[in-house]
Automatic annotation (TrEMBL), chain A:
Listed PANTHER family: ABC TRANSPORTER PERMEASE PROTEIN, BRANCHED-CHAIN AMINO ACID TRANSPORT SYSTEM PERMEASE PROTEIN LIVH
GO molecular function: transmembrane transporter activity
Species of provenance: Bradyrhizobium zhengyangense
Protein name stated in the entry: Branched-chain amino acid ABC transporter permease
GO biological process: amino acid transport
Automatic annotation (TrEMBL), chain B:
Cited PANTHER family: ABC TRANSPORTER ATP-BINDING PROTEIN (PTHR43820:SF6), HIGH-AFFINITY BRANCHED-CHAIN AMINO ACID TRANSPORT ATP-BINDING PROTEIN LIVF (PTHR43820)
Protein's name in the database: ABC transporter ATP-binding protein
Ranges of residues in domain ABC transporter: 5-235
MF (Gene Ontology): ATP binding; ATP hydrolysis activity; branched-chain amino acid transmembrane transporter activity
Family: Belongs to the ABC transporter superfamily.
One Pfam assignment: ABC_tran
GO biological process entries: L-amino acid transport
Organism: Bradyrhizobium zhengyangense
Keywords recorded for this protein, A-Z: Amino-acid transport, ATP-binding, Nucleotide-binding, Transport
InterPro entries associated with the record: AAA+_ATPase, ABC_transporter-like_ATP-bd, ABC_transporter-like_CS, BCAA_Transport_ATP-bd_LivF, P-loop_NTPase
Chain's role: Involved in beta-(1-->2)glucan export. Transmembrane domains (TMD) form a pore in the inner membrane and the ATP-binding domain (NBD) is responsible for energy generation.
Amino acid sequence: MNTTIMLFLLQDGITNGAIYALLGLALVLVFAVTRVILIPQGEFVTYGALTYASLASGQMPGTAKLALAMGVTACAFDLFVARKALHGRLILRSVVANVVLPAIVLALTIYFAAQKPSVAVCIALSLVIVAMIGLYLYRIAFQPLAHTSVLVLLIASVGTHLALQGLGLLFFGAEGQRGPAVLSGAFTAGSLRFTGQSLTVYGITIAFIVGLWLFFGLTLYGKALRATAVNRLGARLAGIRTTLSGQIAFLLASVIGALSGIMIVPITTLYYDSGFLIGLKGFVAAIIGGLVSYPLTAAAALFVGIVEAFSSFYASNYKEVIVFMLLIPVLLLRSLAAPAVEEEKD
Amino acid sequence: MSALLSVTDAHVAYGKVEAVRSVSLEVGENEIVTIVGANGAGKTTLLSAIMGILPLKGRVAFAGRDLARLDIEDRVAMGLGLVPEHRELFVTMNVEDNLELGAFRIEKSRAKASIERIYTLFPRLKERRKQLAGTLSGGEQQMLAMGRALMGEPKLLMLDEPSLGLAPIIVADIFRIVTELKASGVSVLLVEQNAQAALKIADQAYVMELGEFVLSGKASDIAANERVAASYLGFQHEGASAI
C-alpha cells in the first residue's frame, strides 16, 4: 500500500467515523439519561435520509403521516394518564404539542413535496419530522416503562426498532435512494480530494460536538440532563422531571440520527434497513466508551471508521465482521477491569 | 391554625412487610419537629413516603393540599424538600452546579440571590464551589445536600440523619444551621439517631419504635421522659416520669 491509498482510506474512515461518533454520542446520552439502549437510533438515520431524499425528488414521505399518527397516540396517552385530574391547560398543551404541530408539519410537507423544494427546506422538514417521531416514540414506548429494568427497556427498544423498520419498508419501498449533496463542489490538497459533502460531515460533526459540550456545560437544561444521568433520585428531589430529561434526550438523539442520515445519503445509497447497521457501528463505539464516556466514544467512533475503511480495502467481504469483532477484546478487558454491578434501583 | 404538614394514619409497606404502621404526625409553620428512634424503626421509610418516593396508605396533606396524586417533583414545587440519608448528590458535577440545579424550578434571578444566601450559611461551600461534589468530605457533602434542598426555597425541609458519620464539630455546626433555618421561616422535620442533639433544638418530638410512634409531645417533655432517657439519651434523669 502506498501513502496515497493510505491517506484515502484514512480520509474515508474519518468521514464515516465522524458519523459514527455522532450516533455513538446519541446512544450514550439516551442510555445515561433513560437507561434505554436505543436500537431504533438506526431508524432515525434511515428516516432522516429517506425523508430528505424523497422530498428532494418531489415525493411525499410517509414519515410525516407517521409523525401525526404517533402524535395523536401520544396525546391519547397524556389524556388517559391525567384523566382523573384533567384541566383545560393540560388538554390544550397536549393537543397543540402532539396533534396540531405534526398536522401543520404534514400540511407543509404535502405543500412542499409537490414542488421539489430547495435543499434547505428538505433538511428542515426532515429534521422536524424525525424529531417529532423521536419525541412521540419516547412518550408512547418508553415513558410508561421508565421505572422498569434495563432488560424490559431493551426489549421495548428491539420492538420499536422492528416496528419502525417495517414501517420504513412501507413508506420508502425496498429500493435504495440517494439524495442531493448538501454542499456541492470539491477541492484538492496534495493528493487528497475533499468534496463539499465530506467537509459538511466534518463541519456538522464538530459543530454538534461543540454544541453538545456547551449545552451540557453551560445551560441549566443541559446540566439537568447530566444530573439525571448521574443520580435520578437526586434529580427528582431537585424538582427535575425525569420525563423532561427523557424527552430532551430522545429529541437530541432523533435529530442527531436524522442529521447523520442526511449527511450520508448523498454519499451512499441507503435502503429502508441500512440505518440498523450504521447505528450498530455507533453502538460499537458507545460500548468501547462504556456507555458513559463521551470523549472515549467519539475517539472510538473514529477508530471504528478507520478500521472499517482499511478492512474494506484488505478484506472487503469481512469488513463488518472485523468491525464487530472489535467488541470482543473490549468487552473482555472491561469485564476484567470492572466487576459486574447490580442494576441500580430507584 | 392548620398544620403545614399533616400525616394521618399512614402505613408504608415493603411488599407484605409493613415498615410503618398507623402513624400520624403534624408539623406546624416555623417549627422544628424531630422523630427519634433506633436504627430500623421506620423513620427513613416514613420520610421517603411523605416525599412520594415510596407508596403510602393513609393521608398526607401539605399546606392544606392532599399529596396523594402528586409525584416527587410536584411536592418539591409545592415547597417540600428532602435531604436524604445518602444525600443523592450529583457527584461528578461541581458544588455550584449542584446548587444551581437545586433551584431548577425557581426563577433565575431568585436563584442567583439564593446561591449567595447558601454561601453565607455554608461558607465552606463557597470555598469549594468549583470542586466536584464526589471529592468533598462527608460534612461538606451534607452541607451541599442541605444547600441544594434549600435552593428550592422549601417551606418544610425534611432532614434524614444529617449527623450520621460526621465529626462532632460538624454535627454541632449542622444543628446550629437547622435552628437558623427555623429563624428564617423554614419548618424542619428532623429524623435523627442522635436523640440528645435533636431533642435539644426541636419544638415537638415523636419517638418511633418498630414502625409505630410510641410517644409524642413537646421535645423538652420527651427529653425528660425516663424511658426515652434510658433508651435513646444514654442516661437516667433524676425524678423523671415513667411513660
